[in-house]
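Lab notebook, design round three. We kept the backbone fixed and only want residue identities now. Task for the bench partner: fill in a sequence for the structure below.
Input structure tokens:
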């Protein structure tokens, strides 16, 4: 789950409790902030993963998203459905102009997911991020309100 992400899989329950306690109570955080949304089964409420939304500070109506699914929830289309729902919310209700996502260029599953929901591959930044002892090349994806 954490292979292509900056956090470690040793992330513990106390870390999780602190993260939950730090979440904004509004639907979206203030500019510059992040919110983690749970991905759950609508009926059973089983927890599948999360989607993070970042309200970009230096441009209006611009959001960054990230998605993680538990291994047992992968390969079933759950991520695509959840990210699609978040994009609909951001464009149709939150007034988004542009939504972006960044991932390690070796992370093929997330690249397929982002393309499936209609995001364009628009950047390839060599050695743009250093984590877990190595440089990571970042691919950027984006979709504009007028492209939907
Ligand atoms: C990124 C991540 C969420 C993608 O998960 P995923 O399971 O591939 O994505 P989805 O839930 O949308 O499932 C789509 C896959 O299920 C398959 N699938 C099976 N049944 C399906 C169904 N009924 N409907 C839709 N897709 C289905 C699709 O073919 C697709 O597989 P493919 O990409 O091999 O073609 C997952 O790999 C992950 O959590 N990775 C670790 C965290 C991470 O790296 N996040 C990115 C940080 S930027």
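Proposed sequence:
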């Amino acid at each position: 789950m954490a292979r292509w992400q900056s956090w470690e899989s040793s992330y513990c329950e106390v870390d999780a409790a602190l993260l939950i306690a730090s979440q904004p109570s509004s639907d979206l955080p203030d500019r510059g902030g992040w919110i983690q949304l749970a991905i759950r089964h609508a009926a059973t409420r089983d927890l599948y993963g999360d989607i993070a939304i970042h309200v970009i500070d230096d441009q209006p109506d611009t959001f960054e998203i990230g998605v993680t699914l538990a291994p047992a929830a992968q390969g079933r289309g759950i991520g695509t459905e959840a990210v699609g729902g978040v994009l609909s919310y951001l464009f149709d209700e939150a007034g988004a102009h542009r939504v972006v996502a960044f991932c390690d260029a070796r992370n093929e599953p997330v690249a397929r997911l982002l393309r499936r929901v209609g995001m364009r591959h628009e950047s390839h930044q060599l050695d743009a991020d250093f984590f877990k002892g190595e440089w990571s090349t970042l691919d950027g994806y984006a979709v504009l309100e007028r492209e939907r």
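Keep this in mind before ordering anything: The CA atoms of residues 80 and 112 lie 9 Å apart.
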